[in-house]
Write a sequence for this structure.
């Protein structure tokens, strides 16, 4: 049942399965009057290596993203393409958090619109499904077989679930479906909060603001000797009531995450 406004249905794939998410792929379709009228698809070069466990799910490798744009460029293009349309995703909070972290890292613009969530709508309107994972719903609804766990393909599957939910709800009102999703999900609402900083760690804020390298005395505790790590801070954030530093390790060139409670001291790097 066609909705009364244009909707962008989007899906993301990530380079990691745990910790802070790193955007790897964006796929989206624009649906108007029940028809797909446009699509958006891009791989993204993340600042971290792709986990083997993540590749096992979506099949994307480091070789695939060798010429892909960085997250800032990809997000800027995606936001311009979305315009003022509302968004829709399967488990919208996940995708909003992925976009929120990349906004925090890069400052790239992100869409301001709310998300319809097909997980929440499916639980309400397709209660008989064995579960409400996207692949399960596709099997339950006898949708055409095809690729899963790639962004553009999953965006199309999510659209078909959305259409089924609208049909069962007997509505063409996007506003009515949005209300059925409960508390509105927006990317702005999923931007990570600021880290809680003890006074001894406040030099990290200055280093992040000024683009300075620092040396961390990390770990150790009561019984061990802390490691000396030279890093370039990239992001300070709080998640699940714990505060973290995301920083480039200057020895390996890799982006790593450090728990602030384990940082004993912050110093200027040795010359």
């Amino acid at each position: 049942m066609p909705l009364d406004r244009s909707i962008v249905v989007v899906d993301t794939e990530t380079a990691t399965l745990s910790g802070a998410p790193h955007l790897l792929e964006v796929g989206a379709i624009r649906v108007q009057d029940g028809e797909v009228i446009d699509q958006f698809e891009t791989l993204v070069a993340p600042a971290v290596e792709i986990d083997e466990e993540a590749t096992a799910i979506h099949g994307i490798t480091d070789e695939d993203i060798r010429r892909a744009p960085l997250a800032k460029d990809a997000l800027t293009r995606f936001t311009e393409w979305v315009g003022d349309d509302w968004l829709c995703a399967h488990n919208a909070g996940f995708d909003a958090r992925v976009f929120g972290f990349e906004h925090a890292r890069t400052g790239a613009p992100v869409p301001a619109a709310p998300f319809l969530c097909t997980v929440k709508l499916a639980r309400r309107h397709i209660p008989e499904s064995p579960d409400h994972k996207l692949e399960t719903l596709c099997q339950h609804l006898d949708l055409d077989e095809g690729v899963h766990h790639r962004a553009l393909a999953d965006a199309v599957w999510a659209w078909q679930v959305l259409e089924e939910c609208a049909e069962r709800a007997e509505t063409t009102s996007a506003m009515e479906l949005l209300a059925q999703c409960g508390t509105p999900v927006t990317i702005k609402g999923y931007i990570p909060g600021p880290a809680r900083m003890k006074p001894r760690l406040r030099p990290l804020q200055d280093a992040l603001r000024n683009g300075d390298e620092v040396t961390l005395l990390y770990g150790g505790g009561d019984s061990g000797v802390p490691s000396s790590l030279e890093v370039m801070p990239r992001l300070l954030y709080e998640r699940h009531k714990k505060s973290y530093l995301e920083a480039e390790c200057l020895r390996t060139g890799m982006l790593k995450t450090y728990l602030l409670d384990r940082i004993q001291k912050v110093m200027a790097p040795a010359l």
Remarks:
- Residues 151-169 form the longest helix (19 residues).
- The beta strands are 7-14, 23-32, 35-43, 86-89, 115-117, 214-218, 227-239, 242-249, 255-259, 263-267.
